[in-house]
Specification:
The complex is a heterodimer of chains A (308) and B (324). Chain A contains 12 helices and no strands. Chain A has 308 residues and is mainly alpha-helical. Chain A has one domain: Orthogonal Bundle (MetI-like fold). Chain B is of the alpha/beta class and 324 residues long. Chain B has 2 domains: 172 residues, P-loop containing nucleotide triphosphate hydrolases (Rossmann fold); 78 residues, no CATH class. In chain B, α6 links the parallel β7 and β8. In chain B, α4 crosses α5 and α5 runs parallel beside α6. The chains are: A mainly alpha (308), B alpha/beta (324).
Amino acid sequence: MDMENTNLFEFAEFDELESEHIAAPRYSYWKSVWRTFFKNKFTVGVAVLLLCIIIFAMIQPMLSGYSPIKTPNINNSHLKFLKPSLEHIFGTDHVGNEVFDAVWAGARNSIIVSFICTAINMLVGIPIGALWGFSKKMDRWMIEVYNIISNVPFLLLAMILSYVLGAGMRSLIITMTCTEWIFVAYFIRTQVMIIRDREYNLASKCLGTGTWTMIVKNILPYLISVIMTYISREVPSLISYEVFLSYMGLGLGTTNASLGQSIAMYTSYMNGYPHLFWIPVSVLAIISISLYIVGQKLADAADPRTHM
Amino acid sequence: MSNNANDREVIVSVKHVDISFDTGGKKKFKAVSDANFDIYKGETFALVGESGSGKTTLGRAIMRINPCSAGEITFEGKRISGKISKEEDRNVVRSIQMIFQDPAASLNERATIEYCVSEGLLNFHLYKDENDRIAKVDKALQDVGLLPEHKSRYPHEFSGGQRQRVGIARAMVMEPKFIVADEPISALDVSIRAQVLNLMNKLKAEKNLTYLFIAHDLSVVRFIADRIAVIHLGEIVEIADSETLFEYPLHPYTTALLSTVPMPDPLIEKSRKHKVYDPSVLDQSGDPREMREIRPGHFVHCTPKEYDEYCAKAARLEKEKGAR
């Protein structure tokens, strides 16, 4: 190159630290989760519907004071088997009670039981599962415990427990949590094993991080989305369990309202008065499906890959 | 330089180390066999070999991630392989740190840079109060050319080179004496490799560090390493000073490895012959193979018969170099 030409150029100055600067707006995990969740109008609609149903189910039974053993209109034949109308929104049943009251009182108990059971199963299952996935020593005996428990027929266990503990909310919760947690733990164990040996965990180990800190800081944040998915399946499935057990007469007992019990009670009138059967079933379906949809969408939103 | 090797302080010593993995069956897979070398304080010791040769396994054995099935590893004269006391363990974790190969995989994506860098500080409570911890994190970030404002960012917001520097800051904040760098630049873009290497050299000088540099790229190793060990199929075949190894490669595997270094000149590259390593050229007499010193500080894994050949070859090469 010509020597003269080189003089035409001069070195541009630049600030090296300036090039390290990140211009993108700050990223916040939970903010991004909510933003992604609320972006979809359908999801928001379902969430609002679900919230209304839950609030209504919690409040309405308190106002109506419905109980399946209270039958004030049993001798008034004019009030039995009425079709749904403005006055009797869901109609009346074989003892003259409002189906509307019965359904919401039942929904209330079903929702409460399933939420409590899910909370217990998760709170017990997740920490045990996380440790189980981490410790090879624990895995050796836990897997045997799992094999034994998972082979006990659930219905048999439910029957024995309801004989021993009697009917009622407490015994139902015990029935639905005493073995269910191990399935949660097993699921978490498998998930933990998948990411346990990733390089960033190795790096944490080299920095002297203990197992528990590792679980809380390195493992569980990665599992938020899958745990959310699990919960979104667990809640509706426990509602169905509760309905099923109450239908079999192993649930909340005859003194407590429950969707399962209403369905069982009204099944015998299915031919003559189908609305008695279909109304509680539809309410159950709406609650289960909207819970599932909201849970799934929350799980999707919790996955950072959807945040971009 | 190699003559006074014996006077220098040994920081890490690997003695007759075997590492094998359970394959589930009766047979165990031996990844490293009879590895022997000393790393002196203040040097950069490189471990070079093709993929699957056991170089990372050996590095991880020093980090105590992989257990040794035989032999022992010492750090500052104390055994660190196998079971050691809790106090000892804390000391070793602090003193030996690691820089990982893939900066994208080795940082916790769900934690802020502040947490990533101060993780070690938190574990050992190496700070007086919150302000001191923040100050230490800021200092560590500035040392590697990052900004304190990066603390609240997440790893995925950074470029590869920046992430690798976060990884370096995370190791440096512990004030270690010895660092195992497992192919720290092979996952990086070519344009920023030099930046990271220069940073490592700068920190080494500032903080009086010793590196074990694991690599497969010989041109990089020549640039950064003081001494080089060549490892092939779990066996260390040659150890020498960096320049010695490039000038007088003796073991046939080393010569083959050196012949694969690409030359940035198409004319030379076109006519160059690449050697292929064939283990059958080795002495098949079944005599015991061990590390033997051919020239001062230059060890080759050989049988007594090969030893004589290598000595002759070394003398011949020396003569050729002298004549030129």
